[in-house]
Amino acid sequence: MRRGGVDAETADPVDDSVDPDETGRRADAARWARLRRGRREPWWIRVRESRRARIGVAAGVVVALALGLVAYFSPLLAVRTVRVDGLSVVTEAQVLDALDMPAGRSMLRIDTTELAQRVARLPKVHSVRVQRVFPSSVRVTVVERTPVLFFEAPDGAHLIDSESVEFAIEPAPIGVPKLVTETPGGNDPATRAAVTVINAVPVSLRLEVGEIVARSVSDIQLELRDGRRVLWGGAGDSERKAAVVIPLLTRDGEVFDISSPNLVTVK
């Protein structure tokens, strides 16, 4: 049927009815959910669960301690080999004697710091590192002292390293310069100044130095093996002096004065 220019069609009826039983079930379910969320377990259940948790933790601690004790004393982790690296003049026997490690000692029972300190007491040892290498090895890495100067004394040649430490009385290795000063020794200011100078001298020139004469901390000179002399002056500004000395030695002359590196002279 058409009314007022608009088609009118018959529509299917819509069922707006609500099932009372379904609504009740949903309300009951929501209410029980709220009750369950707010409900607490009875106290005796909470105590029982807490006790079980504590017992489990304690058992775990006991097992861990037992395993640790077994590993601490077990021969399975005993030290079987000791490897020593970095030796040149110090012998392996000297290092092993200094370590004084009991046979069969567990890897977990060794004190690497204490062992390193024992080896470091050897006069010719500059530094040492001791490491565990599981399952059964210990590695000892040694850095030896190297002489940079020596001085003559009634009991023989005293070797001095780059830190002004007197560490041996024995013939000096070939190529090590001789120190000439009034009171040589590790605590002598002129000796320490001479060590600072020789440490700054370029390696290529250091091999040519036969003697280093230190009349005072500010009057140091290098006596080269070919007869030439380098007047170094004091230990101050040694880096600049080391930079100018090699080019200067290419000139003809016998005395090379670099005590003032900004105003060098050759005679």
From TrEMBL:
PANTHER family: CELL DIVISION PROTEIN DIVIB (PTHR37820), CELL DIVISION PROTEIN FTSQ (PTHR37820:SF1)
Segments passing through the bilayer: 55-73
Protein name: FtsQ-type POTRA domain-containing protein
Subcellular localization, as worded in the UniProt entry: Membrane
Biased composition (Acidic residues): 9-21
Region (Disordered): 1-25
GO CC entries: plasma membrane
A Pfam family annotated for this UniProt entry: POTRA_1
GO process annotations (BP): cell division
Species per Swiss-Prot/TrEMBL record: Nocardia otitidiscaviarum
Domain POTRA per the UniProt entry, residue ranges: 77-145
